[in-house]
Amino acid sequence: MGKWSLLPLVLLLGLAFALQPGQAIPDFALLDPQGRTVTAASMRKPAVIVFWASWCPVCREEFPGLHRIAEETGIPFYVISAEPRDTREVVLDYMRAYPRFLPLLASDRDRPQQVAARFRVLGHPWTFVVDAEGKVVALFAGRAGREALLDALLLAGADLP
């Protein structure tokens, strides 16, 4: 069996392992680009949380569509690089093309990789849709399709245009 034939199995196991709909997102404390602390409790909700990496080809393909949704809906998209080599400078440079995304960066308390581990993320990109109570409504391992993401935002209580 080739390594590519195992990919669906890995994705299924990853989805089974990750936070599930109905579960509260874990506590974290990361910094926004201005140095303000963002926690699970303080983030604006409903929201979308995307775990990504600068080298990830699926992330590169997906981000323009996600950014359009962020622009159209006004829903906050928090993006967290789970890649240890993605420094603050790399993340902020990458995010210049996506001004509606709010990148979250390492703080004195947490590193993005630690937060990804609490969400039980096993790859890139992983997208979580969170409702006003901070509970996961939907998660996507890999690309999040536009219609599915908009449906999840409606389930999260988002007031879409």
UniProtKB/TrEMBL annotation:
UniProt KW keywords: Signal
Start and end residues of each Thioredoxin domain: 19-158
UniProt-listed Pfam families: AhpC-TSA
Entry's Gene Ontology molecular function annotations: antioxidant activity; oxidoreductase activity
Residues of the signal peptide: 1-24
The protein's name in its UniProt record: TlpA family protein disulfide reductase
Species this protein is from: Thermus thermamylovorans
Taxon lineage: Bacteria, Thermotogati, Deinococcota, Deinococci, Thermales
